[in-house]
Amino acid sequence: MSNAAMPKSLLGIEELSASQIQAILERARIFKPVQTQGRKMDRLKGKTVIHLFYENSTRTRLSFELAARRLGADTTSITAQSSSVQKGESLLDTLNTLAAMRPDAIVMRHSASGAPHFLARHLATTIVNAGDGTHEHPTQALLDAFTILEHKPVLNGLTVAIIGDIAHSRVARSNVLLMGKFGARVILCGPPPLLPPELKELSPCVSLCHSLDEAISGADVIMMLRVQLERQNEVYVPSTHEYFQYYGLTLDHMKKAKPDAIVMHPGPINRGREIAAEVADSPRSVILNQVENGIAVRMAVLDLWIGPPTQPDPEKTMQPQMNADERR
Amino acid sequence: MLLIKNGRVVDPSQNLDAPAQVLIRDGRIAKVAERISAADAEVFDAKGLIVAPGFIDLHVHLREPGNEHAETIETGGRAAAAGGFTSICCMPNTTPVNDNAAVTQFIVETSRRVSPVNVFPIGAISSRSAGERLAEIGQMHRAGIVGLSDDGRPVMSSGLMRHAMEYSLAFGLVMIQHAEDLTLTQGGQMHEGVQSTRMGLRGIPGSSEDVMVARDILLAEQTGARYHVAHLSTARSLELVRDAKRRGLAVTCEVTPHHFTLCDEDVRDYDSNYKMKPPLRSRADRDAMIEGLADGTVDAIATDHAPHAGSEKMQEFDLAPFGIIGLESAVGLALERLYHPKHVTLSRLVNLFSCNAARVVELKDRGTLKPGSHADVTLFSTDRAWKLDANQSASRSRNTPFDGREFRGGPEATIVAGRVVWRRA
User: Fold this and answer.
1) Could you read off the pLDDT of A255-278 as tens digits, one per residue?
2) Collapsing DSSP states into helix, strand and coil, what is residue A44?
């Protein structure tokens, strides 16, 4: 598949077709060995990627940066604290300024839902959404699908339980949309105030339940969400203690799940808040695989969106280079 | 003297819908008849046009004083004239708030000087619209306010609302409520429903309006105050108003053109021109508005004209301010959504824009073409094709989701106190 088949920007899973998603996952499979072996390629040599993060996220930013660098791109990162936000510049002005420096892509995270969509309407530069408010986090859903497919043959027919603060989760939204495109069933579970009934309308593949036991019995994939206290200016649950009693994943619960069920978490995890330490560290947890796969998937995204139209050849990696200091 | 000839006069206040001539003398309507001989009068040829009592917009934000970069009394007045309105009521949420006679006086005097249309200020219910203690309602009344509202900052305290309703009785002022329980809407960006869930935007539930309307109707019943629901937007609130009317209470309401035209499904691409309060509601709510406009539950069409500078609206949806401009698109939308699909008759349409609106704020001798009343006349066409171009707007702001919309029929000329203040070019 050539780059032309992708939309100008990667804004969300919603805008992608199943075949486009498949193309991304296939390319990620090509890049995975490059990532695991710590090699580099020059697919994006001469390309510049700006990472613009208006919301704190060490892991996603780092994952994107490493992905870009593994492919030979020049990268630079801007966080809200260091940018001109503080000087009162509007988001559109900031982006126009950055776009004038002619980067090939701007990877952005923003706390406002739709911020990248708003910008994409006014800018010619490719924008990659690294999470917008409570809307979408497309690369997370892609890396989740990639990780699931390392353990299950196909997505079609799987039952994926997503547990936690669904209402405010962009990870849940993107995953629901992705799973729906591949015929997987999604069970969304959480306390009722964090599980609005409208979620059912997101996709016909969705069902809702308020009991953790019910959600995970029969699930092939159990996806725990972080209890995002920073996004709540209201109290939805009485206490984190009570939350864990009803929605925290423990080894006891795991007995009710399918024996080959895997446990996922987009991170960062709160041990003892939504997931017991023993579960996070158990062999059924693929949480660290998700982190590793994140880089391969983001390499695939960058390569498909701004890379050359040719198929990558993982054997054709860059020769280790001596830097100037060593030569001297 | 001005003689309006060849038009079809529609004046619900006199049950009139017939080809007739209107003679204006000294700023007042002198006569309405099939043939009037007034040889020395200037003639306005209204061939093919509807001649109606001047349209009144009960809900306009003029932004002056304080936010003149978005709108002024002059530009807002011009936009009103271009929209076919001869009178507008301006909301008190200016800077400073119109909560005292000095601000009221400033608005009254400035508008007399610079606005082509009549401007009737609405005074704040509470001081600074802070919802704590009553504003100087009596003094504002003397200075010229025609109603009371803390628009944009609803009176959350039931105790204060009751007190204000009682106090307003002494002056016969209507209480206009922006009905919104803020504890239910905190952080909300659009109507709470499937679309907000899909877009990951925090919802503003319909119940936030309903609980406020219900509370206020109970208080209005207790106090005997006249109560008017501003920009009513939900089917449930409409039901509450319908019931209150049935029980004979002095309860009225207005609906905006955007709430009978658009719904939450139209909110797309995080375009902040679709962001307003109350938000665009569900499709069922929107259809209920049309029903209410048709069956008489809704008293008036008001625009909630809310100008915001381009830079303010060109932001993330979360950060953009609420509101759209509406003066110049109102009549076109009413024709498109209500008249052409035959939901309302022409007489009912005129009623919603003039006679009934005048009644809500008790504007004497307006909203009618009876001899002796103010010579405010709106002339509009029901079939002339035109296109809204926001960049040509007389308003200082451009924030409308209707830019580029093609209309069938709209305002053609606006006459205020016998003077033609606007005519379609």
Assistant:
1) 989 999 999 999 999 998 999 999
2) coil
A86 burial level (CB within 10 Å; 0-12, 13-18, 19+): exposed
Q: Which domain holds residue B17?
A: 2-50+375-423
Say yes or no for a CB contact (<8 Å) between B200 and A196. Answer: no
What ipTM was reported for this prediction?
0.90
Cβ neighbors of B296 (< 8 A, separation 6 or more) are: B348
Q: How many domains does chain B have?
A: 2
Measured between beta carbons, which residues in chain A are less than 8 angstroms from residue B313? none
Judged by a CB distance cut-off of 8 A, whether residue A92 touches chain B is: yes
| Average pLDDT across chain B, whole number | 97
Question: Sorting pLDDT into bands at 50, 70 and 90, what band is A4?
Answer: very low
Catalytic residue annotation of B: 304
Average model confidence (pLDDT) across chain A: 91
H/E stretch holding A130 reads: strand A126-132
What phi, psi does A213 have (nearest 5°)?
A: -55, -45
Same domain, B349 and B276: yes
pTM confidence score: 0.93
Does B212 share its domain with B104?
Answer: yes
> Is residue B165 located within the same domain as residue B19?
no
CATH number of the domain that B161 lies in? 3.20.20.140
* Edge-to-edge strand list for the sheet holding A126-132: A74-79, A48-53, A105-110, A126-132
Crossing angle of helices A18-36 and A58-70, in 10° steps, is: 80
Q: For the purposes of burial, counting CB atoms within 10 Å of the CB of A269, is it exposed (0-12), middle (13-18) or buried (19 or more)?
A: middle
Distance CA A250, CA A227 (A): 16
With respect to residue B332, please indicate whether it lies within any of the assigned structural domains: yes
B35 shares its domain with B61: no
Residues of B in contact with A202 (CB under 8 A): 197-198
